[in-house]
Amino acid sequence: MPELPEVETVRRGLAPVMEDATIFAVEQRRPDLRFPFPEDFASRLEGRRIVSVGRRAKFLVIHLDRDPVLIAHLGMSGSFRIHGGADENIPGGFHHERSKIAAHDHVVFHLERDGQAHRIVYNDPRRFGFMAFAEARDLESHPFLATLGIEPTGNALDGAVLAALLAGRRSPLKAALLDQKLIAGLGNIYVCEALWRAGLSPKRLAGTVSGQRAARLADAIRAVITDAIAAGGSSLRDHQLTDGSLGYFQHSFSVYGREGEACRREGCLGTVKRIVQSGRSTFYCSVCQR
DNA sequence: CCTTGAACCTGGGCGC
DNA sequence: TGCGCCCAGGTTCAAG
Question: Which of residues 246-265 of A touch strand B (CB under 7 A)?
Answer without folding.
Answer: none
